[in-house]
Amino acid sequence: MTQATSTTPPAATAAPPSRLRDGVIAAGLLGLFLLGLGTLAAATGWHESLAQLAVLTVAQVGLLLMLSLVNYLLRAVRWHLFTRTLGLRTTMSQSLRHFVGGFAMTVTPGRVGELIRLRWIRRETGWEPERTAPLVLMDRAADLAAMAILLGIAVTFSTIGLTGALPVLLLALAAAYVATHPRLLAWCVTRAYRTLGRWPRTFGRLRQSARALRAFSSPGALTAALTLGAAGWLAEGVAFFLLLSWMGADVGLWTAIGIFVFSTLAGGLTGAPGGMGGAEAAMIALLQLQGVPLEISVPTTAVIRLTTLWFAILLGLLLFPVAERQSKRAAHDLENH
């Protein structure tokens, strides 16, 4: 394994903010999230919303969290497969630590803070971010493709239909297609550089990362990535369907899955941290189109976001210091060898 020779980390993986700052940002976003949903709940009457939340049992909330864990674990396994495909000799425990620990940085705009995973890999293996950047591209592309497939199935099998889903589906598929085709992505990077005429070093690194995607273009790697991603997001879609049924909303399985996936994608397109605001608005609006009243759609949206997005952030914050400590120890061992 080649030892890192640079002592200054690239800008893309600069030292992360302090844990206190991360916690304050996460708490602030959670507060805004709860305030927004609370305002909607107030419009319907607190009593109705609280009465709907009281319907849930501890076991039901536990099942929602377990289904979210299934999603995180399957995608962590996919991350591990990506690292091995790239040639990194990381262990499953390392990949799990990196992947879940990175959720702590979901609160950053566009989730760029999750690039901290590349910093941890650099410390533990000596691989520079230019060589590991394809991991991030493939992870995002695999999520887009898997969610687009689920959304397509939902649109097909939903008994009511999901108006407006087709543009988002096509956009997600197009982005995933470009990100997984090295020549096409490299061409897009080149065109962007010629148009802007700036940041040659950054665009050079992007072209280098695009060429490295060839390792992931085999049918076996792509099939495994799509299967794991689709199964993971399907678990959370099923959780949303179960939650709706427990709250008394009569929404079909594939309609519920489609609403969940569409809202998650729509929130991500806003670029806001964790899709905050956009995902919730889309979810409530789509539920209303299915005849679900606000006194059910608002608490349902609050619960599913708490048990998916905020549960992931909580796990990330718990694992973040462990990943930092382990990576620093590994970096010290590399230097001594």
TrEMBL record:
Cell division as UniProt keyword: no
The UniProt record lists the keyword Membrane: yes
Localization in the cell: Cell membrane
InterPro entries: L-PG_synthase/AglD
Signal peptide: none
NCBIfam families membership: flippase-like domain (TIGR00374)
Protein name: Lysylphosphatidylglycerol synthase TM region
Protein's organism: Tropicimonas isoalkanivorans
